[in-house]
Amino acid sequence: MPDLASHRWGHPASRAPRRLQPWLTERGSLTARLRAHFPAVRVRLLRQGPGQPLRDELAPLGQPRPCRSVVREILLLSGDTPLVFAHSVMTYQSLRYGFGLLRHQGVKPLGATLFANPRVQRSPLAWRRLDRRHPLWRAAAAAVAGLPPQLWARRSRFTLGHAELLITEVFLPAILKE
Questions:
Q1: 21 lies in a domain?
Q2: In the structure, what pLDDT confidence band is assigned to residue 4 with cuts at 50, 70 and 90?
Q3: How far is residue 16's CA from residue 95's CA, in Å, rounded to a whole number?
Q4: Which reaction(s) are listed as its catalytic activity (predicted)?
Q5: Which residues contact 99 (CB under 8 A, 6 or more apart)?
Q6: What domain range includes position 66?
Q7: How far apart are CA 43 and CA 148, in angstroms?
Q8: 72 a known binding residue?
Q9: What is the mean pLDDT of residues 29-55?
């Protein structure tokens, strides 16, 4: 199984701000945890369609080079306040051989589907502080104005048989204002 703690992913979550650490280390559904702390959590679908994994996503997906994939980007919001920018990627092969239902996910949180299936397994979490040089910081900044120069993110891989889905969640400043 490919290693998640590569390409600078794997920083201990203990380096993150203390109030953010429980969010970064949550092993259950992030959406469920958000709903317990924030009213009116909803999903805004930013994009879902053909793309390629980012360079630091290739190894965790077990891919030696860029490949045709499906990329999904969303914001998790409380009302109109963005809390989390999430980026998911899976190869077309994974879509065909395990995660085909995700093709029609729409504005339903992925966690609702993934955690409802007992056959889906989750890897250990990996963390990283992102800055303006990272494509996911730039994608989050394109969706949410006025972000600080650094954000914390976590990443995990979900597997169903031989199908793999990599999800990265970038935590936005408003999550600390609960």
A1: yes
A2: low
A3: 33
A4: chorismate = 4-hydroxybenzoate + pyruvate
A5: 90, 160, 163, 165
A6: 13-177
A7: 22
A8: yes
A9: 91
Which CATH number goes with the domain that contains 91?
A: 3.40.1410.10
The DSSP output letter for 95 is H
- CA–CA dist 80, 132 (Å, integer): 24
Write the pLDDT tens digit of every residue in 100-118.
Answer: 666 666 677 777 778 878 8
Structure tokens at 122: 């989750």
Longest dimension (CA), the chain: 42
Residue type, 155: R
Query: Is 4 part of any domain?
Result: no
Q: Is residue 6 part of a domain?
A: no
58-74 CB burial, b ≥16 within 10 A, e <16: bbbbebeeeeebbbbbb
Number of domains in the chain: 1
What does 99-151 look like in DSSP terms, one character per residue?
-GGGGG-TTS-HHHHHTT-TT-EEPPPEEEEEETTSHHHHHHHHHSSS--SEE
Rounded distance, CA 114 to CA 31, Å?
12
Strand partners, 74: 45, 86
Note whether residue 106 is domain-resident.
yes
